Amino acid sequence: MKRQDLHAAWLPPAAFRSVGSRHTVVHGDGPLLDTVLAELREAAGRYGGTVRHGDGAEPVDLVLALSAVPAESGGTGDEGFVLARRDGVTTLLADAPAGLLHGLFHVVRLGEPAFTGERPAEHHRPALHRRIVDDWDNVDVHPVMGQVERGYAGGSIVWRDGALREDLSRVAGYARLLACCGINGLVVNNVNVHASEAHLLTDRLGEVAAVAGLLRPYGIRIHLSVNFASPVQLGGLPTADPLDERVREWWAHTTRGVYETIPDFGGYLVKADSEGQPGPFAYGRTHADGANMLADALAPFGGVVHWRAFVYNHRQDWRDRGTDRARAAYDHFVPLDGEFRDNAVLQVKHGPLDFQTREPVSPVITAMPRTRVAVELQATQEYTGQQRHVCYLAPMWRTVLGFRPWGEDRPDVAQVAAGGGLVGVSNVGDDPYWTGHPLAQANLYAFGRLAWDPTLDPAAILDEWIELTFRPDDTADPQTLRRTLHELMDGSWQTYEQYTAPLGVGFMVSPGSHYGPSVDGYEYSPWGTYHFADRDGIGVDRTRATGTGYTGQYPAPWSDIYESPDTCPDELLLFFHHVPYHHVLHSGRTVIQHIYDTHFEGARRTERMRELWRDLPAGLVDPALYARVSERLDEQVRSAHEWRDQINTYFLRKSGVPDAHGRRIY
Ligand code: GCV
């Protein structure tokens, strides 16, 4: 498949119009500079500009130069750049080639303003060094999870039916899109490492190398999820004990082989002792023992192991009120703080449970000052509408990244994550629009942009994405297009929250698929995700005073703020407290009336979203894309009404409290 046959997403040719119509000179050499030159030349070929590599006499509008940026101005580091414009010339300087690549994409995002007026020197550097996308792609089609675990956009762009795809042009296109929004790492296979994926580490390493070769021109390093039991499964050893010399030697030897084949390999990702994956517990060892063994194997080559903190008992007895899944990661990992090697990164899901629509920030992020912590987000919309619903997630992620666990004037989550990085589970597949729902592309774009700069405003990121993707100024009615997309997307996370599980209680989804309502779907299951609704009230008591003690895992002031229903934020009330239905929220409404009101309101808002899209004048967006979004909005409206009716009916039946406004509940 040719690049022009792929959906261009946020890099359509027209995004390069401003750059492509300029006379540009590039100073510097190297593989990433070749990419920069190729991008510039393609754009110039289309829009009438010129591109020169090295010195010459002709006047230029744009200079990209690899040159040591004076140390007194801070330099640019490995990936940063300085942008300035003086006397009609726009200049990009960078210490390292990746900086010029990111600088070029920055100028593309700016468009014409990059070439107008004067611009004092602006220094751009990523706030987080590691900005990684995790693909949950399976090599073999998994009987339950399919080709991509929690994938809602078709098959894998890398693997098909147990083999590497012959045509990897989508991977090359993916690399380009990821680089444009700032990503520099990709984990190419699922964290659940089944038999075929395990072999990627050894006899199928050539396939990984082939993918790495497509990522490299865009400054993206490849990482691999590995199975902790590989020494047994692949090496024929009787044990995978991390302290056993034979095991350590197997990993050292195998890792050496990986670097011989892929010299810029990023490192390993491990899900251990989690949902059936093997891990160090089987040998009576700690997770620090396990992670450090891999860290030691990777260290000579500069590699890093990302070790996931998603460890909990998934075979819990629902009758057991003493076990609280939310506590698990903290209880397992915080005692190990200070024991992990410097090249071991603890990868923590942003919330204590599992990517719910609303969760508090995981206390693990706050409690391991001597460990490098990476924060994991989920762009694939497992619990947020599965790319059938519009749910723009940047506002949620911004809330997480800007949360200050130790109170005002103290570091926020993004600053803690600077030690380990930001990781996002990808939402792409071989769907023509990459993400199933075309508007879900914005989530991947926003993830990358927030990883580069976690302080960005979600609405501003959406502006960028709209301008790049839809080129409103090239349409007959730019303002209507911009306004419609913002109205559809800006508040869509809040809308989704309104018609699904209320006030932070989570789940209530269909077991297995995690799509659609099932209020008691997980209530008597072993997964540890309960809401405890009865005739009097609902919610999980996680207080120190009377509950599971989870609030005690937070530092002050949040340990106290969460402890009392009087101070706990409304949106998390049922995560932390079991309260009666007539409990009055800070909003002034009772819990039960809040449930009714938000569910009516959320479902109504989806109708409004569909109307907005229907009212979009013809010709502003591509007709096929228009039809795809229309079809998904129909499903979102249907599903939101189902959620509304099931949730409202359930709670009317449980509580016996009628809706104050007398609306129809079944
Ligand atoms: C990759 C949840 C998902 C699983 C996923 C797991 C994880 O449990 O439902 O599909 O497995 O999280 O993050 O490891």
TrEMBL record:
Tell me yes or no: is Lyase among this UniProt entry's keywords: no
Keywords attached to this entry: Hydrolase
Which SUPFAM superfamilies does the record associate with it? Answer: (Trans)glycosidases, beta-N-acetylhexosaminidase-like domain
Family matches, as InterPro entries: A-glucoronidase_C_sf (IPR037054), GH (IPR017853), Glyco_hydro_67_aGlcAse (IPR011395), Glyco_hydro_67_C (IPR011099), Glyco_hydro_67_cat (IPR011100), Hex-like_dom2 (IPR029018)
* Entry-linked Gene3D superfamilies: Alpha-glucuronidase, C-terminal domain, Glycosidases
Domain Glycosyl hydrolase family 67 catalytic: where? Answer: 123-434
Q: Which Pfam families match?
A: Glyco_hydro_67C, Glyco_hydro_67M
Q: Can you give the residue ranges of the Glycosyl hydrolase family 67 C-terminal domain? A: 435-663
What is the official name of this protein in its record? Answer: Xylan alpha-(1->2)-glucuronosidase
Q: Which gene encodes it?
A: aguA
